[in-house]
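Same chain as my last thread, 259 residues:
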Amino acid sequence: MKNVFKKLYSVLRPFLEPGTAPLLFVTGLILLNIISNAVYELFKNLFDAPVRILLIAAGLLALFLITYALVRRIFKPELTVTDLTPRRGLIGLVSQGRLSDIPVSASISFHEPALTHCWFITSKQPPSEPGSPPVGEGEPFNSAWKNTQELIARLQGKVKFVQAVEIDPENPEEIFSAVDEIYSVARRAGLRSEDIVADFTGGTKTMSISMVLACTPAGRAVEYMKPRRFLPDGRADSKAGSDPKLVDLSFLIRTDASE
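reply #2:
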């Protein structure tokens, strides 16, 4: 029952709160005015007494306000984090660094049993790579672009589709549009929004925020990789691994995607 009320509130929210969708709010006011005039005429014909009509209208208004306040109090917006199962589609933000340490590598490992389509959002190829470490010090510290190429090579032949999407990591409009376009491409490939998850753990802060905003339409899911252990300096211990956590954004705008 609670989920039913939450869905109903999400549908009515643009008409009730001007900050959510101003155009819909104004439209709602106009329609409400038309409906109120029609209700007044109905009451006038039924009761034919202005004082009685006023009392009934005031009572109904009070009942509506009390009900609305209770619904908001009981079903107030809340962010929830849960576990998830592997998805067919993955959108990942690729970081610079050692390939095995970046969050998207762990995300791929988790989703790989079900993965069929994968998109990597990355910065463009830099003039030069950071270079290999001294002998015996492990993997090279790669650019995000180089890590993307290695991830694509790793998935070739294992998934139906894999693609790199190059963006300016500090341009939120470009990143937002890139994520939105990926969902359109996925739909044409036969994937539903619910089949895909977007991992916002890697990349710059601008990339992460832009990805989350692009995933607020209904049906789009986001995850982050939660480290299992941390080093003394506060950094995640990549050797311990990490687990994906689904972040429920349904309390946000919750409009349908333009697909």
